[in-house]
C-alpha cells in the first residue's frame, strides 16, 4: 500500500494507506488511520476522519459524493470504541453518514442514509435512500431495509443480489476512466 496522495493527511503521524489503483477525488479529505483496498474509489467532497479510531475500507468499494465517515474513541466503558469497517464491493450512495459501524460485502447504502455506532450490516443487503439505522442494530443478509424509523422491508430477489456486485463493478470501471485522465 502507498501512503501519499494530495487528499490524504496524517493524524499523530499515522497516514492513510491506499491499495493499488485506488481513486481519490482531489476535493475529498482523508485523515489519519485509514486503509483503502485496491480498486476502491472516493468521490468528490467525501470527508473521512480516522483520528480517535480506525477506518478500514475493502476492495472495489465506492464512497460517493459528500459522504462523511467517522468513528468513536475507546473509553473504559467501551474499550474498543467504535471503528468503521467497510467490506468489499460496497456501494455507498451520495451524502451518506457512516459512523462507527461495520459493513460486510456487497451492500448498497442508499443516498442520505445514516448508520450509527455499533450497527452491523451483513453481506448482501440493500438499505434504501434516507434510512436511519439506529445504534447496534444488525441488518440481516439478503434483506432490504428502509425508512426512518428503519423497517425490515422484504427479502431481496436474485436479480437484486446480483446487482450488488454489478454496482460495485460499474464504479470500478468509472474510476478507471477518472484515473486515466489524472
Ligand atoms: C428502497 C428501494 C430500493 C426501492 O425498493 P422497492 O421494494 O422497489 O420499493 P418500491 O419503489 O416498490 O416502493 C414500495 C414502497 O416503499 C416506499 N419507498 C421506496 N423507497 C423508499 C425509501 N428509500 N424510504 C422510504 N420509503 C420508500 C415507496 O414510496 C412505496 O410506498 P407505498 O407502497 O406506500 O407507495 C429504492 O427506493 C431506494 O431507496 N434505492 C436506493 C437508491 C440509492 O440511493 N442508490 C445509491 C446511489 S447510486
From TrEMBL:
CDD domains in alphabetical order: LbH_gamma_CA_like
PANTHER family: DYNACTIN SUBUNIT P25, PROTEIN YRDA
Full protein name: Gamma carbonic anhydrase family protein
Species, as recorded: Thalassotalea mangrovi
Amino acid at each position: 500500500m502507498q501512503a501519499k496522495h494530495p487528499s490524504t493527511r496524517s493524524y499523530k503521524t499515522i497516514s492513510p494507506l491506499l491499495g493499488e489503483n485506488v481513486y481519490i477525488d482531489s476535493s475529498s479529505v482523508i485523515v489519519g488511520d485509514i486503509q483503502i483496498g485496491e480498486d476502491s474509489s472516493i468521490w468528490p467532497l467525501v470527508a473521512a476522519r480516522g483520528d480517535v479510531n480506525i477506518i478500514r475500507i475493502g476492495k472495489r468499494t465506492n464512497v460517493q459524493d459528500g459522504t462523511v465517515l467517522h468513528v468513536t474513541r475507546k473509553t473504559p466503558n467501551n474499550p474498543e470504541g467504535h471503528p468503521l469497517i467497510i467490506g468489499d464491493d460496497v456501494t455507498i450512495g451520495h451524502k451518506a453518514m457512516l459512523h462507527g459501524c461495520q459493513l460486510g460485502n456487497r451492500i448498497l447504502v442508499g443516498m442520505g442514509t445514516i448508520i450509527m455506532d455499533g450497527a452491523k450490516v451483513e453481506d448482501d443487503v440493500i438499505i434504501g435512500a434516507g434510512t436511519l439505522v439506529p445504534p447496534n442494530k444488525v441488518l440481516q443478509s439478503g434483506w432490504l431495509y428502509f425508512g426512518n424509523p428503519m423497517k425490515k422491508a422484504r427479502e431481496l430477489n436474485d436479480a437484486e443480489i446480483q446487482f450488488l456486485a454489478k454496482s460495485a463493478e460499474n464504479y470500478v470501471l468509472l474510476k478507471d476512466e477518472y484515473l486515466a485522465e489524472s
